[in-house]
Amino acid sequence: MSALLIIDVQNDFMKGGSLEVSDANEILQPINSLRDKLKFDLVVLSQDYHPSNHISFASNHTGEKLFSTITLENGTEQVMWPDHCVQESHGCEFHKDLKILSSDEIVRKGMEVNVDSYSAFMGNDKKTKTRMETLLKEKNIKSVYVCGVAADYCVFFTAMDSKNAGFDTYFMKDLTKAVNPKELESIYQQLSDIHVKVINSCDISL
Ligand code: VGL
Ligand code: ZN
């Protein structure tokens, strides 16, 4: 059984959004086409879903510059992001051109004020779990194909955690865009090191 994980294809990460990822809109149609071409047993959309007082927003820390990194009390590093994907805002909604079916599952993350969550499996504290792993195991999923945004944050950490949870994991290079494209080579290397398969979507056969 195979699952497609579509990570954070939400207005705030797309063109005109508060945390716009360059060229992110280019992956919308290719993701839709992949769903038409291949029948995944399960499609899960992750949704970054922050309260407005979230710890990852620079606006909630006095004197911190946007995109700087601070060390939190629990010792984890935290990037100071612009306000994004605030619960119930337009920015947190999925892009209107993304194909969504009623059979798709939605997994929300980043809801706790004091914990950020890049991975769709768990918080950056490695403690707070989402329902992703339970959901995939319930549905008997063995192979996980990951796409969406951002390649160097949420897609990367989701792929790492998917592999660590025991799934055969595929990172689809052509169906993701990065906040820092210069980081991509290092991202691919770290994924390959733990045997996540870094592929293009045209090479998949289910
Ligand atoms: C993301 C930064 C902050 C992502 C989410 O979806 O990659 N990046 N929150
Ligand atoms: Zn976020």
Automatic annotation (TrEMBL):
Pfam families: Isochorismatase. It comes from the Eukaryota. It comes from Tieghemostelium lacteum. This is nicotinamidase. InterPro entries: Isochorismatase-like_dom, Isochorismatase-like_sf, Isochorismatase_Nicotinamidase. PANTHER family: LD05707P, PYRAZINAMIDASE/NICOTINAMIDASE. Its EC number is 3.5.1.19. NCBIfam families: PRK11609.1. Residues 2-199 form the Isochorismatase-like domain. Belongs to the isochorismatase family. SUPFAM superfamilies: Isochorismatase-like hydrolases. Keywords: Hydrolase, Metal-binding, Pyridine nucleotide biosynthesis. GO terms for biological process: pyridine nucleotide biosynthetic process. Pathway: Cofactor biosynthesis; nicotinate biosynthesis; nicotinate from nicotinamide: step 1/1. GO terms for molecular function: metal ion binding; nicotinamidase activity. CDD domains: nicotinamidase (cd01011).
